[in-house]
Design brief:
Chain A is mostly helical. Chain A is built from four helices and no strands. Chain B is 30% helix and 29% strand. The model of chain B has no long low-confidence stretch (mean pLDDT 94). The chains are: A mainly alpha, B alpha/beta.
Amino acid sequence: MTTSIESIKERLKDFIIKRFLKNTESESLNFDTPLISGGLIDSILTMQLVLFIEETYNFEFSAHEVDRDNLDSINIIANFIQKKLNG
Amino acid sequence: MDNGEKLHDLLKQSVQLHSDHTALICNDKIISYKNLSELSCTLQNTLSLIGVKKGDRVAIYSEKSITFVASIFGILNCDSAYIPIDASAPIDRNKFIINDCEISALIIEKKYVEYFENEFEIHTTFEELFILKNKNRNLKKSPEDLAYILYTSGSTGNPKGVMYSHSGAMSFVNWCNSTFKLKQSDCFSSHAPFHFDLSIFDVFVCIKKSASLVIITENVARQPMLLSKLISELKISVWYSTPTILNLILEYGKLEKSDFSNLKLILFAGEVYPLHQFLKLYNKVPRAIYYNLYGPTESNVCCFYKISNPQSLVEHIPIGKVCEHYSSKIIEDKTEGELLISGNALMIGYWNMDSLTHQKIIFENNKKWYKTGDIVSIDSENNYIFKGRVDRMIKRNGYRIELDEIEKTLLKQKDIISCAVISKQTEQNTSKIVSYIITENLKLNSIIEMKSMCIKLLPIYMIPDDFIFVNSLPITSSNKIDYQKLIKQTL
């Protein structure tokens, strides 16, 4: 599995556009778009994103990691994933 | 019976009986009944010194904390009413509320103080919070016996304040005490924010029982994994929340890692709990006793249904029968129609909105009846079944949302030429809010841009799920927006 940070970002962007933005707006969503603080995803969608990440990258979030600090933009999430994958 | 007992008497009684017992738990902090009472008396003295007196109102603008609860009792001790502010809502909406309810003092987190420095002067601190005193001393007097004002969504575009008396709230507390089997050894959850009426049960019923209350802060309240950990580790036995939250815990809380065996009473309210989702929860936590509680903020809980035999339910969970301290009827004594509620526990009225109060509270045969706006029918066992609304108010995660508040707020933005906000039931039985927008600003033509605009204007639960950009809106023959047509054409 390729896990370069760029491929992680593209994969997340693809998921967010397909699942949360009705497949539109690929131009307006960038890697820094605030997802939770920008009102784009609520708590249920956040959990769907968490499940997607867990399944795709094969690790589990601990309860306190499901937090805005780790999930608020594609850049932030990608960094978090990479940290987890590198142990 | 109203024996003149006040909400803050509940704390005084518990201190006498169980002074060393844990009253509140919040994150890593714990406070006993004795210390909670002392803390609230400290605040009472400070407030009295700055002139807070009987008939005043004091707002609390903070995240949930032990200090927040101590503040509630400190304010009530002054024979003043408390007004809990939703710290997560946009500042302008909160400024409107604070201006509207003419408070004499404001207990507030440091980071928000700057927004109120024109009208208020900083007096002192109380634990981690600041106490601000209103420069204007010419303030309205509260109605007799006012205990709190809870602001909810208003169709005028601004929130409206529901005034509640001590005697009304005490009727509810006493009803809960006699209906549910609660013990001093219980551990209650406080999931709902304090500006939400579910918190009246959490705080005051718990303290009446001298039990322990786990204050769930905003950053934990929507995190299913943290919630199930909390229930399990703190051995919570009494849970009260909206069905949305129960479902969130069930779906994403990794229940296999948690122990819910202490949960003995699960209450839910605020919205319809789809039966198939409830049954999933019931199968996971079969030993708990479940109640569906129903009631608008204006009456707090007025109908209830104990789910004794879940497997026998078909289609929906009834909202049940009227509580003992209320009476109810369907308008014009029909078999399906608007539900009316009567009783001494009803709200006093809306703050500063006499004409709206008279519109919603009507007199019939010398009795005050509150028109709930909810349409109900009656099943074969004489239980009320919720059918829908008479107006454009909706419920989402237990929050009442006036679609007109969203619409009027959006229309105030200069780039929005026109808009229409509707709600639509999704397949998952939740309501989705869709906003149709006419704008000439091409930059706004994006869900991301619209949502980031909305987050500055509306509480998060009011932000539409979807935005559809159009060139015109359908109108009816009477030249009004044709909402029905929009609902039909929305996917």
